[in-house]
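Lay summary. Proteins are chains of building blocks that fold into shapes, and those shapes determine what they do. In this project we predict the shape from the chain. Here is one chain we studied, written as its sequence of building blocks.
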Amino acid sequence: MSFRDFVLSLPLVAVLGFSPAWSADPVYGRITYVYPDGRHFILDGRKKYELAADVDPSSIGMARFVALLFGAGNEVTRVAPLPASLAGPWPSKS
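And here is the predicted shape, written in a compact code that computers can read:
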């Protein structure tokens, strides 16, 4: 592939939404469910994520506001806790 072909293909890649795993942006949200295996969880009641094998499962917990960083294969390689004040109010069960 020539440099010209590469440059011309960039807009197509951007439109289709493809990006390499190493360039994935962090995802921010509140953990709404942790599966019994402790390695899978749901963020903001929408999407299921899986921890990479070398990530400590104790880094996730119900209702924690976190930033997720990704590696190859779209696995979570780091869970960084964030201040709850950034997340806004948590809905009450009443």
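What the prediction tells us: The beta strands are 27-34, 40-43, 47-50, 65-70, 76-81.
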